[in-house]
User: Fold this.
Amino acid sequence: MIAAIAVLTIVNLLIGSVKIPMPEVCNILLGYGDNEIWQNIILKSRLPQALTAIAAGAGLAVSGLQMQTVFRNPLAGPSVLGISNGSALGVAFVVLLSGRIGGVALSRLGYLGDAAMSVAAIIGALAVMMLIVWISQKVKGNVTLLIIGVMIGYLANAIIGVLKFLSPEEDVKAFVVWGLGSFSRVSGDEMVLFVVLMCVLLPLSCLLVKSMNLLLLGDRYASNLGLNISRARLLVILSSGILVAIVTAYCGPIMFIGLAVPHLARAIFRTSDHRILMPATMLCGAALALVCNLIARMPGFEGALPVNSVTALVGAPVIAAVLFRRRKDEIGE
Assistant:
């Protein structure tokens, strides 16, 4: 998987609407390039996109694995508790109300507008996550918490719908474009900060491997083995929520990777042991995100396709094949 990520990163640097030879790409990465246009394409566009895709794919995949483990539900994903919807709601308040209240559409403010959207997405996601954490202390059942999370998501979508109806067309378009998701939105210092945050958060999430293995046994067995169920569930939800909040703030809501990749990792490595499954999911998520980013920027497309469209097109057949194969193996046994 590490080798696949390295190859896909190189392919992401080579392929695009502008053809750049492999030797020139190597020279640019080593600091010897003399073509300024190609340097800008590689260093300011393709390389930041590839690094963002790696970090975002790994983060969403780990978040999906954590949600599927804590709820013991194969259909659980990073957005199952409404945290992604909270990010969208935060951005909606900033984008859709800026033109009406301030008189200037946020979409016209360039870098300042992008920074405001990122901050709003983080605040919205963290607000919903804190609400979920508070509710998790009040309810004991995972199913009840799951239903409450889904209801929070529906409520956020309803408020967003009202804001869309009351907002100017230009602001609605800016919000819709943000909602399509993109790895190209992050560049420069923002990309460095995003990658550093993910490099800190992902190893910290691996510290929960033992608790996640015990949660697979069921609450009764895990409790008998000395696990504090409430605290373990709270830590896993916090870890997943923070990962989703950061990725959504920088890249927009990226769908399907968090749902599909844990199943793909289980099928490839044939294990449910999180000591293997956690890093495997991380690597699979990074690789799949690179594939999706490559398809979105394939030559022949003007600009880039929405990442969410590509993740569904790539991920849906993969997860369907994995599930059919698993079903076939069960019948064979």
Q: What stands out?
A: The chain has 14 helices and no strands. The radius of gyration is 21 Å. Residues 36-71 form the longest helix (36 residues).
